[in-house]
Specification:
Layout (H helix, E strand, L loop, with lengths): L7 E6 L6 H12 L3 E6 L9 H8 L17 H8 L2 E7 L1 H8 L6 H8 L4 E5 L3 H5 L1 H12 L3 E2 L3 E4 L5 E5 L3 H13 L7 E6 L4 E2 L5 E2 L6 H12 L3 E6 L11 E4 L3 H11 L5 E4 L6 E3 L18 E3 L3 H6 L6 E8 L3 H11 L4 E6 L10 E8 L2 E9 H19 L3
Helix pairs in contact: 1-2, 1-8, 3-5, 4-7, 9-13
Length: 401
């Protein structure tokens, strides 16, 4: 059983078919030593009985806003003060709208207004209900106030339709909740991550690019968020889905990525440059498609801005982490880059056939001034968590206060 610094979870259950997953969620939360109190909306009781959640949580389920058994009939205040975190799973479109507009006509909404604990929301609804502008506007309102949204996932729904709106699986929810209670390694910090390739236009239909899939950078952004950091991702062109609760700015070229990074990086504690940014771009982007005529075509290339060097050179800049993708002399090339660019940390990996770019697994050797660590071959999400542990340790060593 894992010990946690804070262990009191108030679980809100709303009226949707996904409420059946709440039973498994309670069990998994208790497996980690957490105390659970369950609050159900009236409609939730139509989908799963309070007795089920009472048996699993070990405590009576709370349903009434005006509870005569509570001291001064102020049960919502007692529960609001008790919670270390308020988790609502599933969250319906109706309760989402109530929370966004500050309504308190039932116990769960009143608790959310009265608590100072972090609010974690796990939506579950029909895909059209999720995608409608009203729901999206309400979602943005709550996120701007600091609420964390997990999901929704995509796939087959109870109504038979396919799309976004599925409640995340309980094991996924637990993975996100535990770092919030434990105070993750990057809790209270902000992290800016770049990911993916850049495309440098030759003409309206052609570009110069590279093989980066963005998988490592996206995994790093997800790992930073899991570690408690407020995370922003600046992504080149990829086919990847943006991780939950992460702000993502999409760019295409190296110049665009440079502009977006420099506009935001001063507001972040840590900068991780995982993107494979083009070193060169065509000197001129032609306004028309070049027709195939001559046997040879010579392109003049010019250097792009060095984003990593620019960030590392900022006065009082962030803790700066670079990547070195190498085909030979891995350690020496990485150390040269670490020194030349004045980086705090550099993660080096081999690239080539079935290595590094585009693969699901990778291995890293991480270097800093006076030390290094080897992270063996692993799936990129696992490797990202290991890398973030090293980053957090080195950041704390540099910033002990």
């Amino acid at each position: 059983m894992n010990e946690v610094a804070k262990n009191r979870v108030l679980l809100g259950v709303c009226g949707g078919i996904a409420a059946y997953k709440s039973a498994d969620l309670v069990r998994r939360l208790r497996d980690h030593g957490l105390q659970i109190r369950v609050v159900m909306t009236p409609s939730a009781c139509e989908f799963i009985t309070p007795l089920t959640l009472q048996a699993l949580s070990g405590h009576p389920v709370h349903r009434s806003l005006l509870d005569e058994t509570a001291e001064a009939a102020m049960g919502h205040i007692q529960l609001a003060r008790w919670a270390d975190i308020v988790l609502i799973a599933p969250l319906t479109a109706n309760t989402l709208a109530k929370l966004a507009h500050g309504l308190a006509d039932e116990l769960l909404c009143a608790i959310c207004l009265a608590t100072t604990a972090p609010l974690v929301l796990v939506p579950a609804m029909n895909r059209e209900m999720w995608l409608t502008p009203a729901t999206q506007a309400n979602r943005h309102i709550l996120q701007q106030r600091g609420a964390r949204l997990l999901g929704p996932g995509e796939g087959q729904q109870a109504c038979g339709e396919i799309g976004p709106g599925r409640m995340l699986e309980p094991i996924q929810i637990v993975e996100h909740v535990l770092p919030l209670l434990r105070g993750g390694a990057l809790q209270g910090l902000s992290v800016l991550v770049t990911a993916g390739p850049t495309y440098e236009a030759v003409d309206p239909v052609r570009f110069i690019g590279n093989r980066s899939s963005g998988k490592m950078g996206y995994a790093i952004a997800a790992a930073a968020r899991e570690a408690g950091a407020q995370t922003t991702l600046i992504s080149g062109p990829t086919a990847l889905k943006v991780p939950w609760s992460i702000e993502c700015i999409h760019v295409t070229s190296a110049d665009e990525m440079h502009r977006e990074v420099m506009a935001r990086v001063r507001n972040h504690d840590i900068f991780i440059s995982a993107a494979a940014v083009a070193d060169y771009r065509p000197a001129e982007c032609l306004g028309h498609k070049v027709k195939k005529r001559d046997a040879q075509w010579t392109l003049e290339l010019v250097r792009t801005a060095d984003i990593l060097s620019a960030v590392a050179a900022l006065p009082n800049g962030p803790f700066t982490v670079g990547f070195a993708a190498e085909t030979d002399d891995l350690a020496q090339n990485a150390l040269n880059k670490l020194t030349k660019k004045s980086l705090d940390l550099i993660a080096a990996n081999w690239v080539g056939v079935e290595k590094g770019m585009g693969t699901d697994d990778n291995a890293l050797t991480v270097f800093w001034d006076g030390g290094h660590a080897k992270l063996p071959l692993a799936p990129k999400p696992i490797l990202a968590r290991q890398l973030l542990k090293v980053v957090a340790d080195r950041y704390r060593a540099k910033n002990p206060t």
